[in-house]
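Example 3.2
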Amino acid sequence: MGNAATRPDFWETAAGVAVARFRLAVTVRRWDRGRDAWADAYTSFYTVWAWRSLAANVAGSVSLGEPLVVHGTLRVREREWDRERERDRDRPLQGDRAFQGDRPLQGEGGGAAAPPAPGGDSGGGAHQPRRWVTAEIDAVAVGHDLTRGTSAFRRVSQAKPLLNTPIGATSP
């Protein structure tokens, strides 16, 4: 559960598969005994990926700042920016899958690639790659958090041909 930190980006892959991506901000709340009240602790940010019909529905339903519930698979990866080779390397952390389905590589299709570190080398002239960790969720369901507001559901129907009616037939 968290808030949409960005508007969803939506596009289709070369194979025609719909993809949506947005950032989710999740703030931990703790009970402060001294103040006898809830207090915000730290905020974590996740990149949420949605595919196919979920992607289209996310793009049409989610707006910046809205409270959301996201269900899916969490992937935590260590990333490295090699300034000498000017490339971004992606390594899954232990127990993670390296690649799934038609998921675009980082840097293709709008992935989050890190910029080079500003100001040159910080290690006395020695080359040191910049490293960081990303957290992504491959969503299977996304919805509004109804503990914080109301929502109106609209079923999306896809036009399908009638299977029992011959093409070109007219009714009497």
